Structure to design on (441 residues):
């Protein structure tokens, strides 16, 4: 009787740990899913991919929790059924885990490929870039998943759970974990070397890598390696794994990683012929009181092959809606705005850095700096003129185009003369000289 009583207390203790761990894991799952779902970002497709991956992981936790509770409560009644339940729990969780791995791999591709902003873009990328690294990655994952169902693990002991796996099973699943831990860093680090993001974005990317690697290694240890030696830490492991996924949710929090990288993205191309033809490696001062003509030129260029960056005094939401710029990155030139897509007027080096990063990455780039008067108001004319000198050299080095909308009445005669030495004059208010021939209406 004393032995049975001790076994009952043991079962009760195991059940309590299982229930508490399950509750904690599911609570964290709900928080992570809610956090991702509530993000406000223009990169909706990227958010949906990550949300799908997180939901798959939540399903893995739920399935494992339910079967683990069944195993714990029936360990003394039907040993054979319990052993089958242990194997079933492994297979179900592995299925969800590898589905998570496939989707999180797609998230890595989307996050590091700026041209992918929707499902159609992803399909087009998979078609045009086939075969690619993601195809190889998925092949390894599918191969490991197949071994889950063809292998025959042996449940030596129910509690503590001791499972012996066949050698080839360990090899292929270890290869799958290794592939994930190499693929994600390869994509992210290569992308960061190319885009040269700011420290905040870089740190967020490392958090994502920590979450992905920590989860995959944790699954290998908690679900395969430790059970082989009779160490059952799956219940508390649920909480640790969801916490690691929480790192990813935090790293792509609102207005951070999802919107932090200013990289060239082609706008949806128009079917009509271009209205304006500007020479590359040139700076154009577009003399226009309200900037409407400058935005007209800019939109025509980005919808006919150019990759554009717009730095403007106007709210990005207003510019996006008014000029139908769905993919073009827009920076808000503002002293008070705190959004990640805002840049302060001072120091001017931040404006120069944004333009330098953009034109160095893109091909056929065009940059519009709408707010020269605003920059002068918060700095001094000599400093802004120095900025224009630098930008003029940048567009020359990278064969880009720089558009400078400005109202000539806002400048003194000497100031305007100095700007004119750096730029070609265009627009409704420009003199009808040879420069106007550079625009083909």
């Amino acid at each position: 009787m004393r032995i049975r009583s001790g076994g009952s207390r043991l079962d009760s203790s195991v059940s309590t740990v299982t229930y508490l761990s399950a509750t904690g894991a599911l609570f964290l799952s709900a928080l992570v899913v809610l956090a991702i779902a509530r993000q406000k970002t223009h990169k909706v497709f990227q958010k949906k991919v990550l949300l799908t991956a997180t939901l798959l992981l939540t399903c893995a936790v739920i399935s494992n929790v339910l079967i683990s509770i069944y195993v714990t409560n029936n360990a003394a009644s039907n040993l054979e059924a319990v052993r089958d339940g242990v194997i079933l729990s492994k297979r179900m969780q592995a299925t969800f885990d590898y589905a998570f791995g496939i989707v999180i791999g797609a998230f890595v591709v989307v996050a590091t490929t700026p041209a992918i902003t929707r499902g159609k873009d992803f399909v087009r990328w998979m078609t045009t870039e086939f075969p690619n690294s993601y195809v190889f990655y998925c092949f390894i994952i599918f191969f490991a998943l197949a071994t889950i169902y063809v292998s025959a693990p042996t449940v030596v002991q129910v509690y503590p759970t001791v499972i012996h796996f066949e050698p080839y099973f360990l090899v292929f699943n270890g290869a799958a974990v290794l592939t994930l831990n190499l693929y994600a860093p390869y994509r992210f680090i290569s992308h960061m070397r190319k885009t040269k993001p700011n420290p905040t974005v870089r740190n967020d990317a490392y958090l994502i890598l920590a979450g992905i690697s920590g989860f995959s290694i944790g699954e290998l240890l908690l679900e395969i390696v430790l059970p082989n030696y009779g160490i059952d830490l799956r219940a508390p492991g649920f909480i640790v794994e969801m916490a690691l996924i929480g790192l990813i949710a935090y790293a792509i929090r609102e207005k951070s990683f999802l919107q932090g990288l200013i990289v060239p993205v082609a706008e949806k191309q128009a079917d009509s012929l271009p209205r304006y033809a500007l020479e590359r490696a040139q700076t154009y001062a577009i003399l226009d009181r309200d900037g409407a003509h400058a935005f007209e030129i800019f939109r025509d260029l980005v919808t006919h092959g150019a990759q554009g960056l717009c730095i403007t005094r106007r709210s990005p939401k207003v510019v996006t809606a008014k000029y139908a710029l769905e993919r073009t990155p827009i920076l808000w030139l503002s002293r008070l705005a705190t959004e990640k897509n805002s840049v302060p007027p001072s120091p001017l080096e931040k404006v120069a850095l944004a333009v330098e990063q953009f034109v160095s990455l893109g091909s056929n780039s065009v940059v519009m700096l709408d707010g020269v008067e605003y920059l002068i108001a918060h700095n001094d004319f000599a400093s802004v003129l120095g900025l224009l000198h630098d930008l003029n050299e940048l567009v020359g080095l990278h064969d880009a185009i720089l558009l400078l909308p400005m109202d000539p009445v806002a400048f003194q005669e000497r100031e305007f003369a100095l700007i004119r030495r750096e730029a070609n004059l265009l627009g409704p208010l420009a003199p009808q000289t040879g420069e106007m021939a550079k625009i083909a209406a």
